[in-house]
Amino acid sequence: MVAEHSPLRVGIAGHIHLAPGSERPIADALRVELDRISDRPVHGVTCLAAGTDQIFARVVLATGGTYEVILPALDYRDTIVEPSRADFDELLARATRVIHTGYRHSDTAAYLAANRELLSRADRLVAVWDGIPGCHAASTDRTVDEARQRGIPTTVLWPAEARRADRRP
């Protein structure tokens, strides 16, 4: 139970590779959801991955909230592809707290640890997910499943205008 004066702690999970034109509808959907679940600014919990996580951090800031960042591994920043690395740096600097999982290298084990840490710090989870199962143990669908197994209230958003980026060669 969240104390009366404490902000609601909202974790985020979602797609990294989003098609052009998806950011605005996702941001709008996140704003609506944050307003629906809390009558005051929230405290977000994010890994600041490209795509959904960075959109979420910006929405949290725009609505007067704060956020903390879970870094999956020491080399995590190096795994982020431009142009989102500059966004990552800017958003990381605005975090109220940065938590390191202790992993050296960004891999599935590090991402799983980060997702578990995120869920341990969240009162609820919001997932920006198209409903298609992922291809590894740290995919959005697995995070949603784990949150639900833990009894964490979970909302899945996927605006009609949102699309995943085509990652085929």
- Overall body shape: globular
Supply the number of structural domains.
1
If you consult CATH, what is the topology? Rossmann fold
Uncertain residue ranges? none
Q: Could you tell me how far the N terminus lies from the C terminus, measured between alpha carbons in angstroms?
A: 47 Å
The H/E string reads EHEHEHHEHEHE
Radius of gyration: 15 Å
Number of strands: 6
Secondary-structure-based class equals alpha/beta
Average pLDDT number: 93
CATH class: Alpha Beta
Helix content: 25-40%
* CATH A-level architecture: 3-Layer(aba) Sandwich
Describe the largest sheet.
6 strands, parallel
Beta content comes to 15-25%
The strands making up the biggest β-sheet line up spatially as 4-3-2-1-5-6
Organism: Micromonospora zingiberis
Protein name: DUF1273 family protein
Question: How would you sum up this structure, described in words?
Answer:
- With 169 residues, this protein is α/β, with parallel strands linked by helices.
- It has a single domain, classed as Rossmann fold, CATH 3.40.50.450.
- 38% of the residues lie in helices and 20% in strands.
- The chain has helices at 23-37, 52-62, 76-79, 84-93, 108-121, 140-149; strands at 9-14, 43-46, 66-73, 97-103, 124-128, 154-157.
- It has a six-stranded parallel sheet with strand order 4-3-2-1-5-6, sandwiched between helices.
- Helix 1 (23-37) links the parallel strand 1 and strand 2 (43-46).
- The longest helix has 15 residues, at 23-37.
- The mean pLDDT is 93.
- It comes from Micromonospora zingiberis.
- This is DUF1273 family protein.
